[in-house]
Design goal:
Blueprint (H helix, E strand, L loop, with lengths): L1 H16 L10 E3 L2 E3 L11 H21 L9 H13 L16 E5 L6 E4 L3 E5 H5 L5 H16 L2 H9 L3 H15 L3 H7 L2 H4 L7 H17 L5 H16 L4 H4 L4 H9 L1 H11 L18
Helix pairs in contact: 1-6, 3-5, 5-10, 5-11, 7-8, 10-14
Length: about 300
């Protein structure tokens, strides 16, 4: 804990003086997708320390969920479905971050009406059942959600933002309050374990980071044999539902036609990957069909 406090002070000072180390504006094209190189600023938060904090945070969350009876058991069909989709996507993750080959991946489902999902450092994935039931997601659409969240972890968006902005005790308390609100547990308990990893759950990513997560996520899901056109349908479903009742996920993941246009503009890159995974050609692909009427 003492080391974490010292690290927070250092990061705050660096952010205050505007360290040139935190300025990464260059872009590169990988697999037809323009991305920002992994930030040099991320080294300010040691990977091993972040992974340890993330593991502790994730274990705490799942433990509290189990105590409250909202951690869906591994035998449940929806958990099996999520884990099967993850097993197909995960082998393609290291192409975007070599460290992912050594991650201890976990996938769990929490019984909650929240329309949300996340992937913490080290490949710790969580879905809330609301996103599956209220959006009536197909496997392809689940893969689009999962790929998107995994992509944030692969591109280390959270780690970079934390390094650039610095961490404060107030930030840790806010994470504790968030988890407390989800599970209805004592904020003092969650506050004691809230750390760098926990803050990743409440980060509001920038437009460019969301664009990367969309496209990198669809890249790895397409290679796994999931239709990238599902990403477009997914966000249209979210937009339609959001008109009736605001979705929490959209407060941290900005929506809009611009992101859909980005996906459409990259179908010339993504569809061939999907077609190859299915053993066919783009010209022979059937139109994508979801399971609800979006009109």
């Amino acid at each position: 804990m003492k080391k974490l406090k010292q690290l927070a002070v250092c990061l705050s000072l660096i952010a205050t003086v505007g360290s040139p180390m935190a300025q990464d504006h260059a872009t590169e094209v990988q697999d037809g997708i323009q991305v920002t190189p992994l930030s040099r600023a991320r080294v300010l938060i040691p990977e091993a320390q972040l992974d340890e904090a993330a593991a502790q945070q994730y274990a705490q969350m799942m433990g509290e969920a189990q105590q409250k009876g909202v951690l869906v058991p591994a035998s449940h069909p929806e958990v099996r479905r999520l884990r099967e989709i993850a097993q197909r996507i995960i082998p393609h993750a290291p192409r975007w971050n070599q460290a992912a080959g050594d991650w201890q991946w976990q996938v769990n489902l929490i019984d909650s009406k929240d329309i949300n999902a996340f992937c913490m450092p080290g490949g710790r994935i969580g879905f809330f059942s609301g996103i599956l039931t209220q959006l009536k997601l197909t496997d392809d659409e689940v893969a689009a959600v999962m790929g998107h969240e995994i992509a944030h972890a692969l591109r280390e968006h959270g780690r970079e933002r934390m390094a650039k902005s610095g961490l404060t005790s107030m930030g840790a308390r806010s994470v504790g309050a968030l988890i407390s609100g989800i599970f209805g547990i004592d904020p003092g308990i969650t506050g004691a374990v809230a750390s760098q990893a926990g803050q990743l759950l409440v980060l509001k990513f920038s437009r460019s980071e969301e664009r990367e997560a969309d496209l990198v996520g669809l890249d790895i899901s397409s290679r796994a044999g999931y239709d990238p056109r599902a990403g477009i349908t997914l966000w249209r479903k979210m937009a339609a539902l959001n008109k009736r009742a605001p979705i929490e996920l959209l407060s941290t993941h900005p929506g809009g036609e611009s992101r859909i246009k980005d996906m459409q503009a990259h179908m010339n890159v993504l569809l061939p990957l999907y077609a190859r995974a299915k053993g066919t050609t783009v010209s022979r692909l059937a139109p994508y069909r979801t399971n609800v009427n979006l009109r």
